[in-house]
Amino acid sequence: MVLFPAFTAIDVFGPLNALNLLSIQHNMTLAMVSHDMKPISIDRTIIDGVGYGNLASSASPFFTEYVLPSHTFDNATDFDVIMVPGGGGTRNLTATQPAVDWLSTQLGDSGEEGWPSYVMTICTGTALLSRTLKIGGKNATTNKAAFNWVKTQQGAQDVNWIPRARWVVDGKLWTSSGVSAGTDMTLGWIEHVHGRNESERVRLLMEWNALDQEDDPFADYYDL
C-alpha cells in the first residue's frame, strides 16, 4: 500500500480490512510504503501540528490522525500487488511526486509484462498512476466527484476513462471509483484470486453490502 500525506482513510483501511481477514487463512505479507518513515497524515495536511483540508483552513484543525509506514521507497522490495489510494493529498503534486517516481520505477519500461501481478488504485489514486505515463491506452476509472480533475493530470489524455463503473479491470490494472469503491474492488479481487466462497466469507465477516463491478450510482449523481 502506497502512502502519502492526506490520503483518504477508507481508501486504505477498507481494502486492508478485507485483506486482514483474508490473511488469517492465506499466507500474505503487507508493506505500508512511503518516501520516509515519518508518520503519514490521514485526510489532512498537517503543518506545525495543525490540520488543513486540501491545504485550506479546517473547522477542526486538531482532528488529526497518522499512520506509520513500514518501508520507504528506497528499501521496499518487489511486490506481487501494489495498491494506490486517493484523497485530497493527490492534488498536492509536489508531495506525491516521490510516490509517482517510485510507481514509475515499479512499472518499468517494458510494458505490462514487467509490472507486478496486480496494480490497483482506489479513488483519485489513479491520478498518481496516470502521472507515471505508464497506463496510456488502458481502460480505467476513478472518483466520480473528481473525475474531470483526474482527466486533466499528466498522461491522462492517453487513458480510456470509463465514467460508469464501480471498478474496471484491464489486464494487470485494476482501478476503482471513489472511496468505498476500493473495498468493493478488493472483494472482487479476492473472488478473482480465491473464488466466490472466499470473497463472500470475507464480505460477511465485514458485514459489507458490496456493489458489483458495473453498479455505479455515483456516475448518475455526478452526471457522468
Automatic annotation (TrEMBL):
Ranges for domain DJ-1/PfpI: 65-190
Keywords attached to this entry: Glutamine amidotransferase
Keyword Heme: no
Keyword Zinc: no
Entries under InterPro entries matching the protein: Class_I_gatase-like (IPR029062), DJ-1/PfpI (IPR002818), INH-QAR (IPR052158)
Pfam families (UniProt xref): DJ-1_PfpI
Stored Gene3D superfamilies: 3.40.50.880
SUPFAM superfamilies assigned: Class I glutamine amidotransferase-like
Full protein name: Class I glutamine amidotransferase-like protein
Species, as recorded: Stachybotrys elegans
